[in-house]
């Protein structure tokens, strides 16, 4: 495992961090035994940065992490979690959330504590409510060690927030499709110039840069002299940036963990050749031609008041344009957002009433209602009823 120093405090952090937002599931809930084995295996093989949040897995990620870090594992890692900014209504809420998180995580301190999911307007609210004095107090009394923030807004607001407090670190979305999105490369370099460590989230765009791989993109990867998987190309591209301290990976398959651990032993900064960087640029351009939504599957838009399963709708829509498999896409659209696979209520795109609540919550600032209209038009045509029948026969063995 390679390690990089957090500039503000000298902590040696594994360049691969374990993100606990997409843990393996069993019947819709965290598969406790499997997920615990995965997290502990990663720690045993050098990962020392574990990231969670109040909202992940509908509030179950933090308690899971607390249980998983028992038996001496807490002492082996730096633990990161986040203040749910959008739920904070007053200064007292900040202490209430943090104290509850300490209990859920079974610890007396948070090593890396983030103000979660900031955009400019949300930061302005948090500042007025006294978040700076809260952070000062929580550091002084030892409940948190290092203060940071995660971000999903404009680069202008990002710079403003960076300059507003003596942060130790920040967390940004960054991958080869997001160089100019949100904080982007400009924000990455700005934060580093101010002495902040940078934690990267969504390195694979919610898995879309890893699988399924469109044949047109795979053709590009196949031209490389050194053969690598799409996931390895994406991760190496980020680690090639010396400004990056840690890359968070939402690993939920054992082979994901094995591959990521291997790459994290080899991915030095500034190690990619000019030819390799040009190849990644070609892959980026091809992805942009194929993808439709820009969704990362973070689920911040949920729950939808009308019951639309927005992430599933977007996942299938993007998958259709990446793979070109119309039959598979229509089957999965009928089954997954339709509740047939999970045995719950339907959440089709046509249920959208254009209320706009999802737009306010979306870190990617997507025009979700318009995209749902396009998805309804694509998948809910004359053959839709037939696909629902096929989906029930396929996924419900009654």
How is this fold's topology laid out?
Blueprint: E1 3-5, E2 12-14, E3 16-19, E4 25-26, E5 29-30, H1 32-44, E6 49-51, H2 61-68, E7 78-83, H3 91-104, E8 110-118, H4 120-129, H5 131-140, E9 144-151, H6 155-162, E10 169-173, H7 184-193, E11 197-201, H8 215-221, H9 230-239, E12 246-249, H10 254-263, H11 274-290, H12 310-323, H13 326-335, H14 357-361, H15 368-379, H16 384-395
Parallel strand pairs: 3-6, 3-12, 6-7, 7-8, 8-9, 9-10, 10-11, 11-12
Antiparallel strand pairs: 1-2, 4-5
What is the compact description of this entry?
The chain is of the alpha/beta class and 398 residues long. The protein has 16 helices and twelve strands.
How would you characterize the overall build of this protein?
It is a single chain. With 398 residues, the chain is α/β, with parallel strands linked by helices. It folds into 2 domains: 3-289, TIM Barrel (Alpha-Beta Barrel); 310-395, no CATH class. Helices cover 43% and strands 14% of the residues. It has helices at 32-44, 61-68, 91-104, 120-129, 131-140, 155-162, 184-193, 215-221, 230-239, 254-263, 274-290, 310-323, 326-335, 357-361, 368-379, 384-395; strands at 3-5, 12-14, 16-19, 25-26, 29-30, 49-51, 78-83, 110-118, 144-151, 169-173, 197-201, 246-249. An 8-stranded parallel barrel has the order 3-6-7-8-9-10-11-12, surrounded by 6 helices. A two-stranded antiparallel sheet has the order 1-2.
């Amino acid at each position: 495992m390679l390690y990089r120093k957090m500039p503000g405090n000298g902590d040696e952090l594994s360049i691969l961090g374990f993100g606990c937002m997409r843990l393996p599931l069993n019947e819709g809930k965290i598969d406790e035994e499997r997920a615990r084995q995965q997290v502990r295996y990663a720690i045993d093989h050098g990962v020392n940065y574990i990231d969670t949040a109040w909202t992940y897995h509908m509030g179950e990620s933090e308690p899971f992490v607390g249980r998983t870090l028992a038996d001496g594992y807490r002492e082996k890692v730096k633990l990161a979690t986040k203040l749910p900014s959008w739920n904070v209504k007053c200064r007292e809420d900040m202490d209430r959330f943090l104290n509850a998180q300490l209990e859920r995580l079974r610890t007396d301190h948070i090593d890396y504590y983030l103000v979660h999911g900031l955009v400019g307007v949300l930061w302005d609210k948090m500042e007025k409510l006294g978040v700076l004095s809260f952070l000062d107090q929580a550091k002084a009394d030892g409940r948190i060690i290092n203060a940071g923030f995660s971000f999903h807004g404009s680069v202008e607001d990002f710079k403003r927030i960076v300059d507003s407090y003596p942060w130790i670190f920040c967390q940004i979305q960054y991958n080869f499709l997001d160089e100019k999105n949100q904080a982007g490369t400009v924000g990455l370099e700005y934060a580093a110039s101010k002495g902040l460590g940078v934690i990267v989230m969504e390195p694979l765009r919610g898995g879309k840069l890893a699988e399924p791989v469109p044949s047109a993109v795979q053709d590009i990867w196949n031209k490389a002299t050194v053969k690598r998987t799409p996931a390895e190309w994406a991760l190496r591209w980020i680690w090639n940036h010396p400004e990056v301290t840690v890359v968070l990976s939402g690993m939920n398959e054992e082979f994901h963990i094995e591959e990521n651990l291997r790459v994290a032993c080899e991915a030095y900064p500034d190690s990619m050749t000019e030819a390799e960087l040009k190849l990644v640029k070609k892959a980026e351009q091809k992805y942009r031609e194929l993808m439709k939504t820009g969704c990362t599957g973070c689920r911040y838009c949920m729950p939808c008041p009308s019951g639309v399963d927005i992430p599933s709708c977007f996942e299938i829509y993007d998958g259709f344009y990446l793979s070109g498999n119309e039959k598979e896409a229509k089957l999965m659209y009928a089954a997954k957002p339709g509740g047939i696979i999970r045995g719950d209520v339907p959440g089709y795109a046509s249920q959208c009433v254009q209320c706009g609540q999802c737009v306010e919550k979306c870190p990617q600032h997507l025009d979700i209602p318009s995209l749902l209209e396009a998805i309804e038009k694509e998948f809910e045509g004359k053959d839709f009823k037939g696909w629902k029948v096929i989906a029930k026969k396929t996924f419900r063995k009654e």
